[in-house]
Amino acid sequence: MDLNQIRKFVLLSKPLFFGWLLAFPYYGPVFNAAAPAPVISGFPLFLVFAATHGLTYLASGVFLKNVSVSLKMMLAGLLVTLFTNAILLLQFDFLWLPAMAVLGMASSVYILGWCCLFSLYIPNVGRLKVMAAVIIWSNIVFIIFNLLSTFLSARAVLILVMLPLVAALFLLLKFDIAYLQIPKQVRQVPVLPGSLLMIICLFIFALYLNGGLMYRIIMPSLDFQVPFAFYWRFVLYILIILLMYLYGERLQKYFPIYVAVSLLGMAFISFAVFSEATAGFLLTASLLEAAFALLDLFVWVILGSLAFIYKAPFQLFGLALATNLGGIVLGDLFGGYLLLTGDSVRLMTAVFASMSIFIVFLIVPWLSQQTERSLPQVIKGNILNYNLPQAGNDRFLEAYLMPGEKLTPREIEVTLLILKGYTNNEIAKKLFVSPNTIKTHLKNIYDKFGVKKKKELILLFPREYRYT
Question: Pick the residue with more confidence: 198 or 402?
Fold first, then answer.
């Protein structure tokens, strides 16, 4: 199987599964229409799902190391999810509690398997576009099921929501993804620093604590007061992601996060000051959706890039997604407590959110600094003054190759000279070959690094590895 098929699968499969996740167990419209009650035997169904979902992420992040199991995880998670969803069609109320627990585990298993493919087989240049497309189509699937749930019976939408899962299984079999072999040891790379992982988790927790507050306090009030607000929020969210798809790769890496955190602060101030008016509610919702559109996209992209460098997708995504879910759930629970305070809920929500946003502003520069420091430091000695690449100067290239790829000695020479700023003709003269031979080498080099042109190859590497 070639890399293009793997990338097509990555691009097409996640929107189907994640659209199902948003529409059904993640307290979506299908859940609201089909569940017999939000609480069964004293247990809130969504919290049961969230608990097993988050704990599976956490356990995977701690214990899973071997990426070769990721495809088996996807297949197993998808089959269990489909079977459990089908079991609920029996319409026995007592099935819902264990089913939500099973769906929590199975869905996280599938998503983590997908994260491995996203991290290891999608090139860093272009990763943002892939993730933006995935998020857009996931939300479109969600909106479709939200519309269907308004005029179809609960049983009908519970049947229809299985279609994205069936389509994802079809894609898995069509592309023969289930039979793809991922090497157990991709290559020797630096160990993921614990300090970097801790900072990332703290950063995500502080951000998505606000997400829990938003969905508990602000959005229910807005949707109650403004009938069209629900669709307005999701259309705006998709438009922001679309803008990032078109222009996001031109931005400095952490600039969108600063913008998003600033928008979050403005949203909670707006909620505290203007929430008595409908226009104030709409302003608050618009600011929040714009903020979380940026955050959702860039958190996935940054995690994918780091997992690619350190070849640790289970550890990074497992712990980060567990932290994400924990922040949302705790924010939701704390929001429920704030609702009991009565008239002061708006002020207390804004104060609490401002504190977490302040923490995020402190963390982002630290995160940026730690990320740069922790990138593989494998260049030894002074390599700035050379006529031709010397043995030992190419070790850093390995961390950026696609899985299973290896450069030939001549391709290493060409790559290093490209990074130094030489043109094709200049490289041809240095290596005593024709320009056409260099073009052939470059085509092979692009494929092995997962890029399409010279500029993307250069931008793939951190600034300190470019010798221009």
Answer: 198
